[in-house]
Specification:
Elements lengths: L9 H15 L4 H10 L4 H11 L10 H19 L5 E7 L5 H13 L7 E8 L2 H9 L1 E2 L9 H7 E3 L5 E3 L1 H4 L2 E5 L17 E5 L9 H14 E8 L14 E5 L2 E5 L19 H7 L40 H15 L3 H12 L6 H13 L3 H14 L4 H13 L3 H14 L4 H13 L3 H16 L15 H21 L1
Parallel strand pairs: 1-2, 1-7, 2-6, 7-8
Antiparallel strand pairs: 3-5, 4-5, 8-10, 9-10
Helix pairs in contact: 1-2, 1-3, 4-5, 11-12, 11-13, 12-13, 13-14, 14-15, 15-16, 16-17, 17-18, 18-19
């Protein structure tokens, strides 16, 4: 899980293991600790353990200073920039606990967007803890979740249940999508978990649990998940000039937000004070290195497969006729490197130059589609993906790419058609089965979903657990099997609740 317990937090660790012992069937913490050390845990056991080693303490409209900045400055600027064009907003609550944070964001948008129904809103809420996700999915809360919360929140956006609790209104509940995601291990950004092209990411009271290097890796992945100009918002105790070198720190009254700047952090929008109230805890937890930390992610950007996994790279739309055209390959590799670093605008410039040639590489055309998708420019992404498919109609990976773009645009029937085409070309394409299973589940086609997920599991069972899957941004067969198992458990709980 990437969690770190320095010696000053050993009492927290002991308390967490003692609590977990009862659930795992042990009479005392020592027996449980010995069992934990004796063998690796499966995904379900890790989820349960996470619930005992982390704190899900939260409430509605927590940290009002940040929400006020969001309501009065950050969101209005985003709304103005999108109004009249593609009216789309994407927000991710990473480590959502029992759901108070993402529902607070949904309520906030409901208040400041009078034409909400004309907007394409995504509020993704992810957490590793199954019980917390289940509570968030139910949307029913006790009075304790409203401490320090303005009275109008309860009065306008909740209804009282027969047992005296408060249930969030369906119109608000529908705005939030709940999902499992392990920030320490899973690949993101990725179309597999809908973590691409985000405008805002809330990751509050999460980073403080991670070991130093894992925290830096998580921050880098969150940076890649944001659009240029997007915002990362952490808790006041997690702000640090050390941990976020790839962001521009913007100092608002009472809060610090981190912005992904197109030009990078060399020209900050404002200067941080010499010391802030939030620097001390993280300065104690992490070494104060001032240099920029750069991580090589391989091909882990949302659409950054170097190839489709089914065909070799370097295929041309036409045959090469002169050595001068080899320059395109060098440009492609440069663009690929820029994409891996999340420098999508620069990568797009290089790729447009390459793709302007009559004999552009299929790989370059497909990568340009992926880069545009990363930037949230889905119309251009789809157009370039269609060009790549026209050049190589038998490439299953390109049809899978088309499906991911269509799914991002909300065109689910088109996405299903493209995925079926990918499976026609490659019946062993496990990710296509997985994607079809998820789409069928979203459409309420439970039997069809179960069939596709079973097919995916069957194919994955023939792979080595550590084998990397084509088109997966580095995901292993074993990890996808765990995700499918978690999906099946969530589906089963949904059946039981009905």
């Amino acid at each position: 899980m990437g969690l770190e317990f320095p010696i000053e937090r050993f009492s927290d660790l002991a308390q967490g293991i003692a609590s977990a012992a009862r659930e795992f069937g042990f009479h005392d913490a020592r027996s449980c600790a010995e069992w934990l050390l004796s063998a690796p845990l499966d995904n379900r056991q890790i989820e349960l353990l996470a619930g005992h080693l982390t704190v899900g303490e939260t409430y509605f409209f927590r940290d009002p200073e940040s929400l006020e900045i969001l309501a009065e400055q950050t969101l209005p600027a985003l709304i103005r920039s999108r109004r009249g064009a593609r009216q789309r907003l994407r927000i991710w609550s990473a480590g959502c606990s029992t759901g108070e944070e993402p529902y607070s964001l949904a309520i906030l948008l409901s208040r400041i967007l009078p034409d909400l129904e004309d907007w394409e809103i995504t509020i993704l809420a992810t957490d590793i803890n199954p019980r917390w996700r289940q509570k968030a999915g139910a949307g029913i809360y006790r009075e304790w979740s409203f401490r320090n919360t303005p009275s109008w929140v309860k009065e306008k956006y909740f209804s009282r249940t027969a047992d005296g609790h408060f249930e969030i209104l369906p119109s608000v509940k529908r705005m939030v999508s709940l999902a499992y995601l392990n920030l320490a291990e899973d690949s993101y950004p990725s179309p597999l978990n809908n973590t691409t092209a985000m405008d805002l990411i809330f990751c509050r009271n999460v980073l403080m649990y991670f070991a130093r290097e894992r925290a830096r890796k998580v921050i880098q992945n969150l940076h890649h998940s944001l659009l240029d100009g997007g915002w990362l918002i952490v808790s006041p105790s997690e702000t640090s000039h050390v941990l976020f070198p790839q962001f521009v720190a913007v100092n608002f009254p009472g809060a610090i937000f981190y912005r992904k700047d197109i030009q990078g952090p060399q020209t900050p929008a404002c200067s941080l004070p010499a010391q802030t109230t939030g620097d001390a805890p993280l300065a104690d937890a992490f070494e104060p290195k001032l240099e920029t930390v750069t991580f090589t992610q391989g091909l882990s950007g949302p659409f950054l497969s170097a190839g489709n996994g089914h065909q070799p790279l370097g295929r041309d739309l036409g045959q090469r006729e002169s050595p001068a055209e080899d320059v395109a390959s060098d440009g492609y590799l440069e663009a690929l490197a820029l994409s891996e670093q999340g420098r999508y605008a620069e990568a797009a410039e290089r790729l447009i130059e390459i793709c302007s040639h009559d004999r552009a590489e299929v790989a370059a055309v497909a990568l340009l589609a992926r880069v545009y998708a990363n930037q949230g420019n889905l119309s251009e992404a789809l157009a370039w993906c269609e060009k790549a498919i026209a050049a190589d109609k038998l490439d299953a990976g390109l049809h899978y790419l088309r499906a991911t773009i269509l799914q991002e645009r909300g065109l689910l029937e088109g996405a299903v058609s493209s995925l079926k085409r990918a499976l026609y070309l490659d019946e062993n394409f496990a990710l296509a089965h997985f994607a079809l299973g998820n789409l069928a589940l979203r459409q309420g086609k439970r039997t069809e979903s179960e069939k596709h997920l079973a097919n995916a599991l069957s194919l994955l069972g023939a792979c080595g657990a550590e084998e990397t899957l084509p088109e997966s941004e580095g995901m292993t067969a074993g990890r996808l099997m765990e995700i499918i198992a978690a999906t099946n458990r969530a589906s089963a709980r949904g059946k039981e609740s009905r």
